[in-house]
Amino acid sequence: MTLSVKEILAQSLSRTFQDLPDQSSLRFFSAPGRINIIGEHVDYAGGTVFPAAIDFRVHLAARKNGRDYFRIYSQDFQSELNTNSLEYSEKETWANYILGVVSEARKKGLTVDGFDLAFTGNIPQGAGLSSSAAVEVGTAYALSQIFSWDLSREEIALLSQSAENHFVGVNCGIMDQFVIATAKHSSCISLDTASLAYSYHSLDLPGFEFYLIDSKVKHNLKESEYNDRRREVESATEKFKKISPELQNLSDADSEKLNSVGLTEIERKRAEHILGERSRVRNVIRFLEAKDPIGLGRELYLCHQSLSEKFEVSCAETDFIVRELYSRNVLGARMIGGGFGGCILVLDKEGRSESVFSELQKEYFSAFGLEAKIYRFRISEGVREDT
Ligand code: GLA
């Protein structure tokens, strides 16, 4: 007999925390992973991003437990935490995404009483597909429902981002949490990260497909240079502000002034990426509307080159995969997400992925001894209650 995700989570909760109130009080939720078509490392520089949710999801079961502590269970780590403390857990690091949401919710004056929560999922971890943001947004949404916080999807995203920034310790932008909270079927979101204005765009290129290749180089943003990049962007912004005090974000800077504001070599490279990405995002949206996959693919390669050479968040393995894809005349490819490993987003004609991937996988294995994986996906919807 195959058990449903709901049954597995319900059974795990009753096995782990024996004295539970009746099962019918359990509610089920799920939150997706995400891809990003273009607009990488610009969401903390006020740029526009163009992400979408995918049909890899984190599933959560939650209920009030009528006590003054939280009982949390990770099905995938087969590990539990029974606590009323909101301290960062060095041991159960998976629990911090949940405790972080509770801690930030309380800071905002929202009521969080005792609850039970179990979760599982199929979003590959450390692959740049935002599995941790999915846990945060799934938790924020679930708690908002069971404690009747009545938050909007935008507020759920902001609460989850502050959990990541202030509790987990990664100074991420708003892209991941926002798309996971607000995504719709078959659509990308064009999100202006300065104003949080957004709109939906259909991702429809008949005869062409997007897929992912996982380099299997695990990134951990906490230990990576992600926070350094953010500081470099901030120091470049400050220098621009000295001559343009009205400037709010690096994304709005005047590219003609790149050489006249006294940037260091590093700051100049970071700024060039941010400003280059500004036009690539516009171009991609235009190519998508014109149903021009060739133009779109070219922008993906240009984005990768800029992430690798100017923003320096790629690595030998992801560069290798993108180079191999290019040499096989694949339409477009680039690393996505925070970088330093993780997944490559690929755009190509339908029906080619099998043969391209099997050749590439062999080459990649002999170069790095790593088993790359291919993920096919559909564009999916954001966090939801699964009734
Ligand atoms: C990570 C962060 C996002 C964003 C991307 C890079 O996924 O969580 O906020 O900065 O990296 O675009």
From TrEMBL:
InterPro entries: Galactokinase, Galactokinase_CS, GalKase_N, GHMP_kinase_C_dom, GHMP_kinase_C_sf, GHMP_kinase_N_dom, GHMP_knse_ATP-bd_CS, Mevalonate/galactokinase
One example GO MF annotation: ATP binding
UniProt entry tagged with the keyword Metal-binding: yes
EC number(s) given by UniProt: 2.7.1.6
Source species of the chain: Leptospira semungkisensis
Family affiliation: Belongs to the GHMP kinase family. GalK subfamily.
Annotated gene: galK
GO BP: any one term: galactose metabolic process
Name of the protein in question: Galactokinase
Domain of life: Bacteria
GO CC terms, sorted: cytosol
